[in-house]
Write a structure and sequence with these properties.
It is a single chain. The chain has 53 residues and is an all-beta fold. The protein has one domain (2-49): Rubrerythrin, domain 2. Helices cover 0% and strands 15% of the residues. The protein has strands at 4-6, 12-13, 49-51. It has a three-stranded antiparallel sheet, with no helix packed on it. Strand 1 (4-6) and strand 2 (12-13) form a beta hairpin. The two termini are 13 Å apart. Its cofactor is Fe(3+). Residues 1-52 form the Rubredoxin-like domain. This is Rubredoxin.
Amino acid sequence: MEKYVCTVCGYLYNPAEGDLDAGIPAGTAFADLPEDWVCPVCGAKKDDFEPDE
């Protein structure tokens, strides 16, 4: 699964790790994150993320 990076702060969403603090289990693809999910570091919206190269 592809990793995504926040263009605002550089946080890297890794699907293998999920976002446990937000209740997102490991193995959750970025596309499957809820639309209201935000960056756990800066609060940016999903639209502010892009695939990590």
